[in-house]
Amino acid sequence: MNSTSPTYAVNPATACPDPQAARLVATAYDTIRRRYVEGRHQIGAAIIAADGKVYLGIHVEAMVGRFSVCAEMAALAAARLCTNQPLLAVAAVRYPKPSEAGGARIVSPCGGCREVLLDHAPQIQAVVPQGEQGVFAPLHTILPIKYVGTKWGAQLPIQAP
């Protein structure tokens, strides 16, 4: 890990004009900066619930790529393990490999994460890169035609008792 490099030390939260977005990005950045392992953990995520608590996750790489777990899914699992509160927003930060130029950066949730996050938090927002800034976008606007099956009926998300 090369967390002492000035390029890597630039927290992408400084690019977020919204204080709540900056808080989530800073938390995701700090998480992956501390837990980064090349080829194992490269993205950190933070999800905030309605009560203000933040839940964290890191990307868990697998030798067979399709079994890797995205940081957003790890954060969602952590949140759902601890609370039934509505989930309001998510942010993810990719930490660069030592061989890459450039610093840590905000990344949008992948398509699979968008689907699952919307299954469990239909009103959630995501911090997404827009130009040089990180801004909130309602997740349903960046996945406008979400898959809706019959598994859970019209009741989304399923609330635990």
Structure explained in plain terms:
With 161 residues, this protein is an alpha+beta fold. It has one domain: Cytidine Deaminase, domain 2 (3-Layer(aba) Sandwich). 27% of the residues lie in helices and 22% in strands. The chain has helices at residues 19-35, 71-82, 111-120, 139-142, and strands at residues 43-49, 54-58, 87-94, 105-107, 125-130, 133-138. Strands 1, 2, 3, 4, 5 and 6 form a six-stranded mixed beta sheet that branches. A hairpin with a 4-residue loop joins strand 1 (43-49) and strand 2 (54-58). The radius of gyration is 16 Å and the shape is globular. 35% of the residues are buried. The model is unreliable at 1-7 and 155-161 (pLDDT under 50).
Work out the number of β strands: 6
Secondary-structure arrangement, i.e. CATH architecture: 3-Layer(aba) Sandwich
Protein structure class:
alpha+beta
Kindly, what is the distance between the CA atoms of the first and last residues, rounded to a whole number of angstroms? 42 Å
Q: Kindly report the name of the CATH homologous superfamily.
A: Cytidine Deaminase, domain 2
Proportion in β-strands: 15-25%
Q: Can you tell me the number of structural domains?
A: 1
Poorly predicted tracts of residues? 1-7, 155-161
Estimated radius of gyration: 16 Å
Average pLDDT metric: 88
**CATH fold type:** Cytidine Deaminase, domain 2
For this structure, what is the CATH class? Alpha Beta
| Largest sheet features | 6 strands, mixed
Global outline: globular
